[in-house]
Structure formats: C-alpha cells, structure tokens
Amino acid sequence: MHASKYHINTLKEAPAEAEVKSHQLMTRAGMIRKAAGGIYTYMPMGLKVLRKIEAIVRDEMNKAGAIELLMPVVQPAELWVESGRWEQYGGELLRIKDRHNRDFVLQPTSEEVITDIARNEIHSWRQLPLNFYHIQTKFRDERRPRFGLMRGREFTMKDAYSFDRDEASAQASYDAMFEAYMRIFGRLGLEFRAVAADTGSIGGSRSHEFQVIADTGEDLIVYNPASPYAANLELAEAPCLIAERGPATENLAKTATPDAPKCEIVAEQLSRPLTDTVKCIVLATEVEGKPEETRIWLLLLRGDHELNEVKTGKLPGFENGYRFATEDEILETFGCIPGYLGPISPVKPITVIADRTVANMSNFICGANEQGYHYTGANWGRDLPEPQVSDLRNVIAGDPDPQGGNLALQRGIEVGHVFFLGDKYSKALGATFLEKDGKPAMLQMGCYGIGISRISAAAIEQNHDDKGIIWPLAIAPFEVVICPMGLQKSETVRNASEWLYQELQAAGVDVILDDRDTRPGIMFADWELIGVPLRITIGDRGLKDNVLEIQARRDDSAAKVPVEEALSHILDRLKSL
Amino acid sequence: MHASKYHINTLKEAPAEAEVKSHQLMTRAGMIRKAAGGIYTYMPMGLKVLRKIEAIVRDEMNKAGAIELLMPVVQPAELWVESGRWEQYGGELLRIKDRHNRDFVLQPTSEEVITDIARNEIHSWRQLPLNFYHIQTKFRDERRPRFGLMRGREFTMKDAYSFDRDEASAQASYDAMFEAYMRIFGRLGLEFRAVAADTGSIGGSRSHEFQVIADTGEDLIVYNPASPYAANLELAEAPCLIAERGPATENLAKTATPDAPKCEIVAEQLSRPLTDTVKCIVLATEVEGKPEETRIWLLLLRGDHELNEVKTGKLPGFENGYRFATEDEILETFGCIPGYLGPISPVKPITVIADRTVANMSNFICGANEQGYHYTGANWGRDLPEPQVSDLRNVIAGDPDPQGGNLALQRGIEVGHVFFLGDKYSKALGATFLEKDGKPAMLQMGCYGIGISRISAAAIEQNHDDKGIIWPLAIAPFEVVICPMGLQKSETVRNASEWLYQELQAAGVDVILDDRDTRPGIMFADWELIGVPLRITIGDRGLKDNVLEIQARRDDSAAKVPVEEALSHILDRLKSL
C-alpha cells in the first residue's frame, strides 16, 4: 500500500468524552470514527486490525473442528420467548418491531437461534459432536456506552456453540475450545490469563474467562504466581485465615466507641488491630408479591475484608436475588442504627452467616446494637450461638493459596469466555436427538465467545506509550512502514524506497510506503501514534553511506543496516517481534 | 474437508413457501435456513459461497483503488433527517428506538454515514479522489419478503462511495467502478449484462445496472444482439416506428363499436390492424394541499404498445408524481366512461401527449368520447391539434435500433448498480473541501452497490437443472467432491481416496471427501443437489483396472482416468470449467 492512495487522518486531540487510552488512541490514529454513542465506523486501518484478529480466530476455530456459519443480526422474538430470555434479559437487549408490528431483537448472542437450528438439523447421535460458530455483528444497548470499543453498543463477536451426546463428550468439546483459545490469544501476541469465572446470565455450570492483562481492566484476577491457578475475583475461593479458633481469654465487655460507625475507627479508638474487628452487612431477600416472606440476614466479615456479591448471590435462600436492607428494616431488626450493629442479641431473631475467617476468630470486636457502643472479647458459643459459615469475601493480595504459596491480584480485560451450558437451552427449546438405543436424549451444549472488536481495544490498553499505540505484530494494521526522507525531491530515495517496498511485498510482509509529501517529524509522529511495529527510514544521507535505518516501535534508537542486508535484517527482526 | 466432520443436511422437499428455484434449491441443499420471514441463517456451505463472492468483490475493489472500511448496521436517525431520507424513504426503512427512545435506522444503504465521514475527513483537494467501500449486513423491511435470498430483509451488500473534485474526475471514478464490475461479474462465472438504468430513489444523473441473465428475473432488459447496447426496459428509448406521417386519406367518421372498450376488440370489430388504433391513458398530477391545482393529462399510445411508467414520471409537470385519474375525473373531463375516450373534443380542455409513434400516425382509430363509438380516419392537424410529443412507451422485441439492427428483450436479475450522484448528498450534508485556490467546493459523489447474497441466488436461477444447483467454479461451496464407493469396507478405496484428497489439497483445490457411511445413490444425489462442479468416484472395481471416474456436474457421463493421471486430469478439467 502507498500512503498517498490510502486514507490516513491522525488527530492531535482525542475527543473529550474518550476516557480510556484505547478510545483516545484509536480515535487519534484514525482507526475509528463515532457514528453515535457506542456505535463506530471502523476506518480502513481499524478494519485491518479487526480482520487480522478475525483471521486468527477463524483459523484456530477451524483447526479445532468448529464449523463456520452465519446467523442473522435480526432475530425473531419467538425464540427468545421460548428460552425465557425475552423476559429475563434487561434493557441491554434491544427489542424492535418490524413494519407489521412483529417483535424482533438485535442479537447480543445467539444461543436461541443455534439451538433452534440444532433441534431441526441434529437427529441422530451419529451427527455428534458438532460445534458451530459465527463471527457477526452484535448489539447490546448499554445504558451509558463509553470506553470506545471496550464497551460499545454495536460490536463484533465470535460465538461458538457445541453440541454433544453426553456430559463427558461435552466436557471434551469444552476442553478443545479452551485449548483453541489458549492458541488464539497466544498468536494474537497478548499477555493474557485464562481464569475460572462465574457463569452469570448465560447460565451453565462451569466457565473460564480469557483476560488480557492491563492495569485499566475492569476485572480483578486472583492468581498464584507460583502455580497455574487463576480465577476471577468474583469466583476465587477465599481461604480461612485462622487455621484453628483460639481460646476465649477475654470477657465480653460493652465499650464506648463514640462516633465510630466503621471498623477502622473502632480499631483505632480501642488501639486494637483491624483484624480483631468484625463487620456487619445486613441483607434482605424477598419473594415477589409476598412481602410477608421478606427475610433479613446478617453477614459477618473481618474488618479488613470486603463482601463478594457473586458468592453472596449463591447462598442458599438467595436464589431469587437479594438487596441491602433498608434503614427501617435494620432499626426494626437490631433496634440500632447502622455502624453499631452486631450478631449478639438483636431485637428480632435473624440468620447469621459468618465468613470462614470470622467463624474462627476469638475475642473479637463487634457492634453492641447500641449507638456509640461496641463489644470486645466476643466469643462464639459462649456469647452467641455458632454461626452458619460460608466463603463470603473477596480474596486480598497475600492470602495463602491452599495449594501452596500466596495469591496475588491483577487487573484484566475480559476478551473471551467459555461456558459449559449443559442442557439449559436444549431443554428450554426441546432440542433432542436419538441416542444409539433409539431413545431421545437432550443435547449437551457449550458456548464460547470472543470479543473481536474488544480485543483491538484491549491490545492497546496493554500496549501503548506516550507516543501512541504499540501493536503486537500479528494484529498491527501494517507490519512495516517505509518512511522515505524527501521522496518528492530525491530520485535515489524514491527508487530505494520503491525497491524495498517491492521486496517486502514479495516476501509477504504487510508494508506501507509513506509517499505523502509530509515533513519527517509529522511522518514519524503519525506512525508512532498508529503503532506500526517496524519503521524503515530511507534518506539521502544514509544512502550515501549505503545504509538505511531500522527501528522497532519499542526501540529507543534506530539500527543502521547496509542496504543489501536490509531485507534479511527486516525479516529477522519481524520474527523477533 | 471430510464430510463426516462437516454438516451436510439435504432435504427431499423444499418448503411450500419457496416459490423460486434458488430458494427451493438453497433450502434443499442445506445452504440456508429460515430464521424469520426474509431472514436466514447461512449454513456452512451457503456461507462458503457468500465468502467466495465477497473475496472476488473485495479483490477487484482493492485493485481498483477503493479502500475498505466498515460502517455500522445501526445508524443514527439525525443523518437520515439531514439528507431528507428519514421522511422520503418508505416502510422498507426499519426505524428503531434505543432504550433512551432515540431514533435509529437499520441501514439499507450508507450514503448518509459515508458523507458524514467525508465531511469530517476530507479537507483538501490533495486527498482526492477517494473511494470507500464496505461489505456489510443491510436491512430492508420488505412488506412481503419472499424468494429467499433474491429479496430478503437481512442481506449482505458491498457498497462503495467515491469522492471527487469535479464532474470529470467523478466520471473517471464511475468508469473505473464500471470496469471493476465487469471484471467482478466475469470472474464470478455468470452470464451478465451491464445495462443503462434509471437512478430511482438513490438519485443522481447516470446509472448502470449489472444484470445476471435468467428467465426468472424480475427485470426486462432491452439489448441489441448486434451491438453493445443494453438498457433496462424502464429506461430504454423507444424509437418512432413511423419515419414520416402519411397523408390524411380517410375522412373522420364516428363508428359504432359496441362493447369494445379495448383496442384489440375495436380492431377486430372494424377489421383493421391493431397498429391503426390509439390507446388513451388518463393521468392526474396534483400538488399536495392544493386540490385546485390537480391537472388531468391524456397520454396516447399505439394500440399494441404499453405505457412506460418511469418515462412518464419524468415528463415536465410530473415532478411531484402522478396517478391514474379516477373514474369521476374521467367522466368530468371527457363526458364518457373509460374504453371509448379519445383526444378529439373532450368536454374540458386537456394536455394531450402522444408517444412518438402515435404522433406520426395518420387515419388512426380512437375513442369518440361517447360510449360504444370510436372515430376512424382521425388525422393530426385536421381533426385535432398537433399534440405534445414524447417517448412514452416500452420497447418491444423487434423495434429497430436507431444505431442499426433490431432490439431484443431478455430477463435479468439486478445484482449490481453504479450511480453517478453528483452533489446530491454532499449538498444535503454540506460536505465540502478546499480547492487549490483555497475556496470551498462541493464533493462530487458516486455510489456503487453489489448484492453479495443476491448473487448466490441469481447464480442458481441461471445455473440449475432437475437434479439441483450447478455452481460456477469460482463460487462453488467446494470445487471437487471425492465420492468413495464403500470406503468403510475397502481399505484400498479409503487409501486411494485419502491420497487423492491430500494431493488435491496440496494443489490448492477446495475439495471435500465424502467419508460418510452413505449409499452411493444418496451420496451422488446429495452432491448433484449441492452442485459441486466436479465429482471424482473411486471404487474397488475401477481401482482393479487402475482407474477412477471424473464427472463434471454438467456432463452426461463420467470419464475413466488412470489413477496416476488423475491429479493432472482434474486440474486441467477445473481450468476448463
């Protein structure tokens, strides 16, 4: 490609609304242009990145035996009603009506359509296993779209769906996809981690997320630097930090703690470590239409720990969701305002659930259910009944890993997700097949997503500097840019540039020759912003000494290379990037 | 690809609603599955066809210097309001609302978005010419979607938009696209014709359609077998069939023509040729909100000719559209019911427009504005004033071409369309650039569409037989199928089949090996239905004689070829397909 025949339009300033680096840099580099909130045009170089990501994903999906098809963007509501998601899905599902007032959705995902296809196409165990995927435009009507391609409304996703005879075979399909994902993210050239994850609204019983490591990521990953263990903070099991409960050596004593509605303040007032305090969280569960069945729960965490809301949502009795209790409910239950609550003698009976660590604490400090007072020296069994025990908290850095070593935390951007669905959708839509014995059986499913457009943004969040983007070679819009100095004036420079351009093209390198009439400073700044991995500078001064300059985007300085060695040097350098 | 690892599911019967061959055959061959009316899933082989078409289109667009980008499916209404099409476009434009009740459209075409991009991206004449294209999902909310991919609601289209400094440069861009389209449809292996066409609702001043020739096509093409001339019937100029008006030799006579409201019956009653009669068409034009400005027009055609509604719409005074006059309007104007109307002495004064041929008729027959009576011997100038003259009729087969020879008619399916837009959209959206002299000038535009998914259907309408589809090689889901006879039982057959499969793959042939456990009759029928261009049959009997069988889909019988010559024979045969 010659730049003069291409469209390059970099911007000095990012739009004010662009909060994250990838949004700023993709806009400044001219890779995306906003059409509406969360809806973008992929400009030529942005589309090239997208296509390179797609090609790697497609190649590995095909190698893993998945079969590509293409399901529609506009899907009939009937199937979503059948699966129950027409009701369950929130405002992010864009529901539309056609000219005949019939209901449709703009697909955010395609479980319903593929299961409908499966129930019509799959008749016999002989056809199984099958894995269908497509790479298609999705729509998710975010309430407040922002962060550019990190969380757009219209986006490109690869979603695959496996169909198997039984759970063992479905697990094998899941494992094959897991391995394919490892290869995909490896080939993309990104630092990533596969982490055990919650199944969320997709449902199913097992799942892993593929997270691109980046400080700006929205997700927190718990991992063990010394082992392969990694899990999303939502799911990561928090160990009990006290191996055995110590003896009750202190007496229970009500102590004045004026203006101390937080554990940190109480610990300070009493000159005790924060780890001696217990935090109270009051929750309510209710049954729709039955206010008399509203139930109040008291969850206890050590003062330095945080509640994990996903784990909470999985507690027995919390199946229909939960909320934080209102101040009225708290007053009525504890006879006290928040800040001084505790598990000892509330006004009304209540179910107490203690985090594993809290359950092994002794001589602990908790609210006295009286404004301005806390108990010290509280002990299970002696001062209050033994609690129900559960893992309620988020892991914190340094927590011991039961398998050895200590856990650490890092931030990540979710770019892939694999789910073991079981028969959730096949049951809802009645997708059965005939087993060898002639009897109908339910298809076992898995689903596997990769956020194609989000990967382009995640790659930038992970790889950028003050000058701009630093693309991994595999997904760079161009692999090499040739920057001639004064091509318009010097025939020598023009000829050398065109020669190298032809040679690189012939060698299969994705190269662009910047033949625009631009000053070197602007030219270099453009390509540093755009983030092309390797830049070749060709000028009269160098050519006099028979050399040209090679500089990788991450390099501090350029290497001078004899012209006749340039091609092999560039090809070698590309291999090392 | 091995068939056992793929998904092949042919059907004996097409769905009852499938009216056209392509819809029936694509469904039966398992290439598409219906998700909703006019909305389909492209099954694996259907998608392969689509991708091959896309690849050819993309390659030729790139070679012609067009730059690929990707505009969104969901587009903000604001831009459509700005262009005026939010109001003008009919019910086919699917208008939707997001969760915040903001208006959007599902794009049927992208003039607005690309012009918005152009006005922001193009600042200087130095950037021009530019041609952007994308291959994207479109939506057109057809009132009654049918004919499968021939006229779907959700479909894939390539649309390109050129931007130029002036009309001459824009014409060069148009011509370059025209040539690229000639190469594209040539490479697709389809019999096609580029025809001059009307610009319709897209607007602009010049356009050509690319029509795939097929008896089932909706469009009528006028062409000259002896010259390159071809035009859509809508646009094709109809010659005057009477070089010079003959003398008035008959007297005007009112003649009884009872129960003869049609020219054919009048001619029969009077024993005169149909070509002596004149047909009356009464139209009305009106100005919205001004009923007093409704105007009645009388259009005259020779008895054997048909009105061309597109030409009519372009008559001076018809700029705001027209309609057929109501029976009340006709009675009021002519004092007579339809069937006996004529241009001589209507009750009210009226503008008469005669088709070119009618204007040169003499001694003609027309209604007498009295029920049951016609005039014979009518002559212009003597019996009624000279009319306004225009080309009003459709060409009919055999009409002389003014350039020599005679015109013929054939049916076609429109699969591509190029438009010279001028400044229609750049003016509406204010898309200007700075000319060399520093003054702002309006961008000159062209737009260029190709119906990717429709091509797959058109190819079938043109190429099929009783057994199924006959794909042109370039867009066949597979180029070659290997059909082993009894692969499950014979190791010799299995080894020979696998060997040939590997050899063909290594030679870059898109080959599928049918290793399913299927009876030969079913296997052959499947591949004839699917329409793979070349079939290789390998069986124990042939292998004993060291031969295998090669049969092209269009061949009546198979050729026996020695095994060691098979590869070169197949490669040669593919070249000739």
UniProtKB/TrEMBL annotation, chains A, B:
Keyword Cytoplasm: yes
Tree of life domain: Bacteria
GO terms, molecular function: aminoacyl-tRNA deacylase activity; ATP binding; proline-tRNA ligase activity
Location, primary (coarse class): cytoplasm
Keyword Repressor belongs to the record: no
Function: Catalyzes the attachment of proline to tRNA(Pro) in a two-step reaction: proline is first activated by ATP to form Pro-AMP and then transferred to the acceptor end of tRNA(Pro). As ProRS can inadvertently accommodate and process non-cognate amino acids such as alanine and cysteine, to avoid such errors it has two additional distinct editing activities against alanine. One activity is designated as 'pretransfer' editing and involves the tRNA(Pro)-independent hydrolysis of activated Ala-AMP.
Protein name: Proline--tRNA ligase
Species of the source: Pollutimonas subterranea
Record gene name: proS
